[in-house]
């Protein structure tokens, strides 16, 4: 992840047209926690950016499938939208994201089951988080960061996935590398995300 993540800022995009900056996330995280919208927004943002994975794939990740590798880790994705043969895939995560995972597991006092779990009532875990909630979570983060309403309206559950793909392109990654990272099988889909970002596609 880029160094700016450590400073509380993260690039997100709502469409292939422009990359937006969702700043002041540190403050937004506290607001979201108090409102019990998401138990671990820090982890949600970090993992979505690290892996470029779809909402349905993020909420399917399990704690028992985390394999630690030095200061980082890999998480095994058991199945995905384009994984027709059910082979699964290992997703690499940074040391920053691994720390967010550990902080969440310690705070929630959980060691098994799905990694992402919602909170109901007085801090009662629901056992799972539905993929439809991710877009609302990102929008609430954007509002808490006091971004203009016109920007908040464009934020979606795919914002970090597309923004990370654009950042990879700018950093020199090839189109095949980006496709593997995000689990894309159609070239035209990825090109739509990155073609207007001002970097050559190869």
Summarize the topology.
Blueprint: E1 10-15, E2 18-22, H1 25-34, H2 41-51, H3 55-58, E3 66-69, E4 72-77, E5 89-93, H4 95-108, E6 119-120, E7 124-125, H5 132-144, H6 149-152, H7 159-170, H8 175-182, H9 187-194
Antiparallel strand pairs: 1-2, 3-4, 4-5, 6-7
Give a verbal description of the structure.
With 202 residues, this protein is of the alpha+beta class. Helix content is 42%, strand content 15%. The strands form three sheets. A three-stranded antiparallel sheet has the order 3-4-5. It has a two-stranded antiparallel sheet with strand order 1-2. Helix 1 packs across helix 5, helix 2 runs antiparallel to helix 4 and helix 2 crosses helix 7. The longest helix is centred in the middle third of the chain and has 14 residues. The radius of gyration is 16 Å and the shape is globular.
Mean pLDDT over the full residue set: 74
User: Hey, roughly how much beta strand do the residues contain?
Assistant: 5-15%
In this structure, how is the largest beta sheet organized? 3 strands, antiparallel
- The spatial strand order of the largest sheet comes to 3-4-5
- Low-pLDDT parts are 1-39
Work out the helix count: 9
Distance between the termini: 22 Å
Question: What is the percent of helical residues?
Answer: 40-55%
Order of helices and strands: EEHHHEEEHEEHHHHH
Name the structural class. Answer: alpha+beta
Short description:
The protein is α+β, with helices and mostly antiparallel strands and 202 residues long.
